[in-house]
Amino acid sequence: xxxxxxxxxxxxxxxxxxxxxxxLDESAVMKDATNVIAMDxxxxxxxxxxxxxRFWTGALGFTLERQSKMEGDLLHQVTGVDDPNVKxxxxxxxxxxVVELLxxxxxxxxxxxxxxxxxxxxxxxxxxxxxxxxxxVRVEAAGxxxxxxxxxIPGGPRKGTLTAYVSxxxxxxxxxxxxxxx
Length: 182
What we know:
Largest sheet: 5 strands, mixed
Order of helices and strands: HHEHEHEEEHEEEE
Helix content: 25-40%
Structural class: alpha+beta
């Protein structure tokens, strides 16, 4: 006889057949099971740590918190990268959000981020800015390019927000979002 947890039973029964309260309870069980309490940082592999630090601090206004080197079996066990040897930098946004920049010794041999923001596996980091046009001018002066032009979101909870993507030498994509004036 197979014993099912309440969550398994709900899934087997089909969540759509459950009353709304049961679906909320299932959601709470799933959240507890993941044990996630916060987002710690966002990491990007880069081809040049020095260039990346200059961009994130100079063009975006982040502060450099620290730099270090890591290597060895522990790093291999954590990342799955063969023969890992990495230089890292931690940069912090004005709101305290943390970005980790990683330059692996075998860098480009490990592959590259897709050129298209719509490619499977592509990711982006969204930053709230005061002036989207000034932000684009500043990052373009640092060698990055806008992928399009700022557009206003036409509806929904972000109605009126201006948004645009920019991309750098490692094809890392950043989305700028300028909230509407209030």
